[in-house]
Every structure is written in C-alpha cells, then in structure tokens.
Write a structure and sequence with these properties.
Largest sheet: 4 strands, mixed
Strand content: under 5%
Strand order of the largest sheet: 1-3-2-4
Number of strands: 6
Helix content: 55-70%
Distance between the termini: 36 Å
Number of helices: 24
Length: 668
C-alpha cells in the first residue's frame, strides 16, 4: 500500500486509521457533509427567510437574493475547482472547503449577535401586550423597529463564503466516486449521496420549523413576559405577524457540524488500494482507448492547454450540454419550491411560518427519500444503458411537468378593507387620531366572514370586547371576529390536501431521475474530463437555474403585494398581504420550468439514440473500427490540435489510434 492510498493527514498516516480506508467509510463521512450542506443551504436558510424579512425589514426580493448569493459565488469558482480537483487530491480539497463553509455558516450567525440589542417588532408586541397589539391606544407610544436593512449584507457574505466552500462537494465527490467504483456501484453510491443531501433540507425544514416557535431574543423563554403568558396566549403570540422565531440557531449548529466533519473527509487517500483494478475494468468495458500510462499522465496534468482541451470537449458534447441545461431547469423548479413554497402556503392557506415549514418538510422528506432509493436501484437492477437512463429521465420529467398543474388548487385570500376605507365602509365619521393606529401594526380581523380588516384599531376598538369599538356600529349586524377569515369561508379545504398531493408527486418524480441523470452524465464523458463535466453541470445549474429562480420568484411575490408595511421614513418594509393571483403566477413559473426540463432531457435522449443508431458497414476493417470506438476522444483531440497548431496533440492521437488498433486486433 503506497502513501497515496493510505488514510491520514500530510505525513501522519497511522496504521489504526487504515482500518477505515474503504469506499464505504468514505460514503458515510461524505454523506454527513452533504447532510449538513443541505440542512443549512436548502433547509435552515429557506425556513428563516420570512423571519429575516421581518427582523431586518427588507423586501422579498432582497431576501430572495440571500440564497442566490450562494449560487453567485459558486459559479465563479466551480469550474476551476472541478478541474483542479480532478487532477490532485480531491479529498484534501473537500476537507479544506468544508472548513471554509463552516466559517460562512458562522458569518450567517453574526447578524443576530450584533443586532441583539436593537429594537424589533417583538418589542412592540411586549410593550403593547399580546392581546392589545393592533388595538386603539396600543401603538400610541411604541417605537418603530430599528432600521437594520444594511445588516442583510452579512447574510449575503456568509452565503457567498459557503458558495465557495461547497463548490467541490457536488462535483469532485462524484468524480472521486467514479474513479473508485464500478458503473453499477456508482449509481447506488450516487443515489445514497444524493439522498443525504435531500435528508439535510428535510431536517432543516422540520428542526427549523420547531425553532421558529421560540422567540429569537429569548429561546429559553426565561423572561417574566413569557413566563406570565398562558399556553393560549403564547400560541396567539407566535401567530402574530410581528413574531420572530429563533432563525439563527440552525446557522451555528451547521457551523459546528461542518467544522467537525471536515477533518475526517480530508483524511481519505488520493485513491483506494483497489481503485486501479476497478478503473482498468471500466476502461476496457466502456472506452478501451487509453493505456494505463497515458491515463495516469493525463490525470496529473495541470496546465491551461489541458483545461482548454477539456472545456472544448465538454462544450462539443451535445448530451452533456443538454443534461446540464435540463439540470438548470430542474434546479430552477426545486429552488422555487424550497425557497418560496412555505411563503405560498402562508399566503394561500393562512398558515404560520412554522406550520408552512413543517408542511413542506413532511412532504419533501418521505418523497425524496423514497424517490432517491428507487432511482438509485433501478439502473443497477435493470442494467440500464445510457440511452435507457435518459429515457427514464424523460418519463420522470414529464410526470413532474403534469403534476405542477395541480398547484392551481391553492386558495386565495379574503378581500382586504384598507385602513383608509374602514370608516367609509361603516358609513359614519369617527375620530381615531388618539388611537395611534400604525400601518406597521397589522392585526387582521374578519368582518362578516368575507372581508379582512387591517386592524381593529381603525374601528376604534380598544380590546377584544368588540362592543367597545367607538367606530363600530353593532346595529349593522356585521360579524367582527379576531384573525383572518377562515379558509373554509371562501375556499374548499380539500384544495389544501390536493395541493399537498400534487406537490408530493412532483417532488417524487423530480428526485427519482436525479441518480439516472448523474449516471448518464458520467457515462457520456471521458474519464479524464468527468470532474470538469460535473463542474460545468453545476455551473449551468446555478447560472440559469437556482440564481434566477429566487430572484424571479421573489420579484413576482413583490409585484403581487397589495399591502406593504410602511416605515417611519415612508419607505416600504415587508409585504403584509398578496393578491389572489400570486398562486397562479407561481404555478405558471413552475410549469414553464418543468416543461423546459422535459424538452431538454428529450433532446439528450435523441442525441444519444442518434449516436447509437449511426449506420455502419459490415465489412469494416479493424483500423476503421478502432477509429469508431474512440471517435469522441480522437475527434476532440484533433480539433484542439488543429486550432492551436500543437504537433504533440497530433502525435498523441496517432499513438492512441495505434494502441486501440492493437487491442482490437488482439481481441479478434
């Protein structure tokens, strides 16, 4: 066993550590890394967006840029890191980058500590009293929340640091697995690795939803204010629009977890002791065009010419390009649902942020888990060819596309009576200037089971006893009850269950094709350029998928807002209510994304089928067959050689053809 096949750090490679030197142990450790990555990036962050929006007083568009900043930083370094990682110790790079990611998670935690003494909407709730917020006189002497909008930049910075740190996790890991696993085992390991990345967001949604039920400024609820509240009063407090949950705990937990997992990941070797034999077998089965010496030389080459050769090869590979853009539309859909799915449920069904996060979590976890297990086993059990893998992706994508039409079953909101229309609606004139009603204190009441009133303060109501409302004429027989109007009054409750059903179907089908898509990309690219191809795949997914998704959907939500919180300086704060058409607009975006995904996977399938069905003569000479076997590699090398005038490239091509000719002649 040589040094590059032993576990350890630098020159420290103890014998007892070699007992863990196996592909299975690596899978366990890297799955933990994927779990922590998914829990913070696609779990804790998405759950916390609404709380961050309320705490720091920013719009949905600006909050939506928080997850986008992660992808923005990632696309700047994903291709260089993928290329560099494919030609050096990939586990060492993974370990270093996980340490960088732990720093980014800690930066996400800092805004909470640095603004802990600043006023918030929670202070207004405490000063006014739980049952008095939004009533006449409750807001007269309450300070507006501090302007903390500039602190959102810290979240951008933290996400960008993690964007750099997590770059090699989903590129170099797949390439490292490919170098150390057979084709059949690769699909299983890739499915398990992807499953860990999916369980992470599910964990983040559920745990993050639980944490949002605790106040962000007093998690233990040790202050006298919380101790004096009954269970029903505390429940009412959490349902208030101004309540801010403990969004920050998930960030510090992830920072600690990433730091602890980075050391064991970096300890794994350059390759495992049996990896060379596995690669030789895969080479003979799939490609059979390079000798062991040539492959070893290329895998350690680090120069611009080699990088250019690899990029030209990937860009000229229509199957790889089609799969990459299909992954971009897939990422667009998943980013839209994971980032704004909870907000959609809040808007459409009057759910709290905690309940909405729970709902998304218990839908995603079982469907994604089951889908990835089945999706990883199917290619191995049925020994799918690359063409069969792509056909399977087409079928799954079409099911996802069809199920997104079920998102139209979401409900709208009851009609809102604006504050300036309250007195006119009553039909009398009242003086409520002494009430101190504030447009930043949104405490909805339901009027006549049809209309939502901004706040009872504008009716002159001083408490829950609605008979004390100076501007409310009880003789008009209007039913005024606390809270937004019940969904059942203007929308069938079955819509809620139907929406969950179609969300589960779309989630299952989109995750079902992930292992097959990764395996298809792996088989469509030459071994020495696979790490670069996976990096290109991630680059396209982020540039055209996850980055524009949060920006487009966030801008859509802001455009559909019909009631903004107004700050003391006259600027808009967070959105308090949305138009009924927001759900339809969200559904339309998802339909376009999943429809494009189906078309792109179909394109990749047709390219693969065309390549497989190329006509060939029965009287082909061995030399001609040798050219046909290594056609993609030879063509790409010839193209680069001609363009750059590199004589060594032409020499390499001739040597490769001769080697292939000798191998084929021997087999005949």
């Amino acid at each position: 066993m040589t040094s590059h096949t032993k576990c350890g750090w630098l020159s420290i490679r103890p014998r007892w550590l070699q007992k863990l030197n196996s592909q299975l142990c690596f899978l366990i450790v890297i799955c933990l890394a994927a779990f922590f990555q998914g829990s913070i990036i696609n779990g804790f962050v998405n759950v916390a967006l609404t709380s961050i929006e309320t705490r720091f007083g920013v719009s949905s568009k600006k909050v939506g840029f928080i997850p986008s900043s992660y992808d923005l930083a990632g696309i700047l370094c994903v291709i260089p890191l993928s290329y560099f990682g494919g030609r050096t110790s990939q586990t060492r790079i993974l370990g270093i980058c996980l340490l960088i990611s732990s720093v980014g998670a800690f930066v996400m935690f800092l805004p909470h500590i640095l603004t802990l003494n600043e006023s918030s909407t929670m202070d207004a709730l405490k000063d006014a009293g739980v049952t008095r917020d939004g009533f006449c006189g409750s807001s007269a002497n309450i300070d507006e929340p501090a302007n903390l909008e500039h602190w959102v930049g810290m979240f951008y910075l933290g996400m960008m640091i993690m964007g750099v740190g997590f770059c090699p996790l989903w590129t170099n890991t797949f390439d490292y697995m490919d170098k150390n696993l057979s084709h059949k085992n690769f699909s299983v390991y890739a499915a398990i690795f992807s499953l860990a990345g999916i369980l992470g967001p599910g964990f983040g949604y559920i745990v993050g939803g639980v944490l949002l039920r605790y106040p962000f400024d007093d998690v233990t609820k040790s202050s006298s204010f919380y101790k004096n509240l009954s269970d029903s009063e505390y429940e009412e407090l959490t349902e208030n629009e101004g309540f801010i949950g403990a969004y920050w705990i998930g960030f510090i937990l992830s920072a600690i977890g990433l730091f602890l997992i980075a050391l064991p990941v970096g300890a794994f070797p350059y390759e495992f002791p049996n990896s060379q034999k596995i690669r030789e077998k895969k080479k003979n089965e799939a490609f059979g065009a390079k000798t062991q010496t040539e492959e070893a030389t290329l895998s350690k080459t680090l120069n611009w010419k080699d990088f250019q050769t690899g990029m030209l090869y990937v860009l000229k590979n229509p199957i790889a390009v089609a799969i990459a853009f299909a992954g971009a539309t897939e990422g667009f859909f998943l980013a839209s649902v994971s980032s704004f799915g909870p907000k959609l449920l809040e808007v459409s069904f009057n759910l709290t942020s905690s309940d909405a996060a729970f709902t998304i979590g218990y839908i995603l976890i079982p469907t994604a888990t089951l889908a990835l297990i089945i999706g990883g086993l199917i290619p191995k059990v049925f020994s799918f060819s690359n063409q069969s893998l792509l056909l399977f992706c087409v079928v799954c994508s079409f099911v996802t596309f069809a199920s997104t039409f079920g998102f139209f079953f979401s409900c709208g909101q009851s009609s809102l009576i604006a504050p300036e229309d309250v007195i006119q609606f009553k039909g009398s004139t009242c003086d409520i200037t002494s009430c101190g009603c504030s447009l930043s204190s949104y405490k909805p009441f339901c009027l006549d089971k049809k209309y939502t009133v901004f706040s009872p303060c504008f009716y002159g109501c001083s408490n829950d006893n609605l008979t004390s409302c100076s501007c409310y004429d009880s003789s008009l027989n209007f039913d005024l009850s606390e809270g937004s109007c019940e969904i059942s009054e203007f929308c069938s409750e079955s819509n809620f269950y139907l929406l969950q059903l179609f969300l589960a179907i779309s989630s299952f089908s989109v995750f079902l094709n992930l292992p097959s898509a990764e395996a298809a990309l792996d088989r469509s690219v030459l071994p020495n350029f696979r790490s670069l191809a996976f990096g290109f795949d991630i680059f396209i997914m982020r540039l055209f998928g996850t980055i524009p998704a949060t920006l487009v959907v966030g801008a859509m939500f802001d455009g559909k807002c019909n009631l903004w919180q107004i700050k003391t300086n006259g600027e808009k704060g967070t959105c308090l209510r949305y138009e009924e058409s927001v759900a339809s607009a969200f559904t339309a975006i998802c339909i376009v994304a999943t429809g494009s995904m189906t078309i792109l996977f179909l394109t990749a399938f047709l390219f693969e089928k065309f390549k497989r069905n190329k006509p060939s003569s029965n009287s082909v000479t061995p030399t001609h067959s040798a050219r046909q076997i290594s056609n993609d590699d030879v063509d790409s090398k010839i193209t680069v050689g001609i363009q750059n005038g590199i004589a060594s490239e032409e020499k390499y091509v001739k040597e490769q053809e001769n080697n292939t000719h000798i191998q084929l002649t021997t087999s005949l």
